[in-house]
Amino acid sequence: MNIFDTPSTYMKEIITKIRIDEDKIKTFKGKTMAFVFFTKFCDVQCSHCFFRSDNEGFEVPREQYEFSKEGFEKFITFINCSNNGYLSILGGGEPFKRFDYIKETIRRVKTDRIVIVTSGMWGADAEVCRRMIEEMYQALFQRETETKLVLRISLDKWHIAKIGIHCIFHIIDVFKNFFVDKENFELQLHTLTGDHSIDKILEHYSGCIKTKGKKYVSDNEEIFKIGLYRYALQFPDGYKIDVGVAQIFHSNLKVNLKRTSSKQLEELITLFDNDMKYNSYSNPSLVRNKNNEWGLDFLISYNGNIATWGNEQLYGLNNLYTDTYQEIVSNIYTNIISYSLLDKGYFYRTQIIQEVNPLAVLRSKAIHIRDYAGASILEENHTVLYYAIRVIQDYIKEKVISVEELSGLSTELQTAIKTKKGILKKRYQTSSYSIIKQYMEKGDFEETEWRDLFNLIYFGHYAVSKEQIEKGIQYYNLHASRKIMKLEEVLENSKEHYQRLTERLTFMKPEAKKLCMEKDKQLEAI
């Protein structure tokens, strides 16, 4: 019997039975960092954006795409329990579509720094712009504890093409005229390498100049959030606006791994790895504090899912709607897959997975989405099982786990853990398992899911044999009442298709989705 033929059975066993003793677990007790998406919806809809949301056509519950009031309250509770030093309210979904959440967050959240990332499109009307900025400052003034509030405008050619530049001028004018002396309320700009949109500000404001910048520098001195490059715009009256420059990431869930040149792929990989090495200290799940302590770095999705950055995986989903802060942190530490990333970092994980599934490593880097790199690289069940076994083997060598602690596992799993790496790799490679079999195991057949999978197989995202593809097509034809002969017959390039691919990578924890569905039905019945 090959353990990799039925990987989900053994993964469930590992997740429930393998526990590292508390006295041997590294804990990261420094100030935490958190990034949150309030919503997936956005009116700008940039072509290069991972979300590319068109704001309509979504299924219930709405909590899959945007915080409900309950979800927002749970978010506030989570942050206030987390010893937070830096909270970033991200764009992607435009956060100002939930301006009510922004103001409540400013008033109530316990943190040292709040950074709001936005396109600035809400600044198109000068009077509305002034009023909204004043409301944010009033919310800041109403806080019980002091914090730094930063409004960070994303300025690049894509945003200008969609919304113009005058909304940015309006925002700058409000800060220059009313908030220049407010040290705890700051305007910043954020742009991309090779982009010249900032020059439009220099042209508009006479005498404004760029100052000399620095590479790989943090945007603050307490929680080190490293950026590629930073400089400032200096105005004649002495007012300054810090500008952060980031590398362009070419987010594309449908990147063609078969037809993209080796040179292009190498460029994508190098950029991705350099970001992990220099901007994330080789561990995106952690953040370094000024006192050299390390804290957890959380990513909170609009659907309530929470993981540490780059640490999303099927066997460790956490969600605001179903899990408390204490439960989420405990799950992250006790799940050997997520803990190993905290402990050993990004390159350790990729090195092990590279041993048996280099395509998973390539896929996770080439799609160029840092947020969900973990979900991509750990998508295939048999690959996750191999990784988990190799981690356990390493922890046994390091005396973090003892052989005696494995006694409660099945005989097959104990044997696999005791197997040498070379033989374990051969068993993986001779297994009949594939992403197609994984989909067959789901039970409930959904035609669009299978079409999306076939699209990705066609683009070279998974290692599957010709025979496995033929079996997948037979299964699809039987359940969909179709008669396709090859993958090309179901290729798709619609907005709806790309949205499904996004949901496929970021799907809401099933238990949380069920809970929200039930609550929505109860509200409808009232």
Give an overview of the whole structure.
By secondary structure, the protein is α/β, with parallel strands linked by helices. The protein folds into 2 domains: 3-23 and 346-514, no CATH class; 27-279. It contains 21 helices and 13 strands. It has helices spanning 7-17, 69-81, 99-108, 126-141, 157-163, 166-178, 199-204, 262-279, 325-334, 336-344, 346-354, 358-366, 373-377, 381-397, 411-418, 421-430, 435-440, 447-458, 466-480, 495-506, 510-525, and strands at 32-36, 84-89, 113-118, 148-154, 185-192, 209-210, 214-218, 226-234, 240-246, 286-288, 294-300, 305-308, 318-319. Strands 1, 2, 3, 4, 5, 6, 7, 8, 9, 10, 11, 12 and 13 form a 13-stranded mixed beta sheet that branches. Strand 3, helix 4 (126-141) and strand 4 (148-154) form a beta-alpha-beta unit. Helix 14 packs antiparallel against helix 16 (421-430). It is globular, with a radius of gyration of 24 Å. The N and C termini lie far apart (55 Å). The model has no long low-confidence stretch (mean pLDDT 93).
Identify the overall geometry: globular
What is the number of E strands? 13
**How much beta, percentage-wise?**
5-15%
Number of helices: 21
Distance between the first and last residues' Cα:
55 Å
**What do the pLDDT scores average to?**
93
Question: What structural class do the secondary elements suggest?
Answer: alpha/beta
What low-confidence regions span 5 or more consecutive residues with pLDDT below 50?
A: none
Radius of gyration, Cα only, in angstroms? 24 Å
* Overall helicity: 40-55%
Largest sheet: 13 strands, mixed
Oligomer: single chain
Number of domains: 2
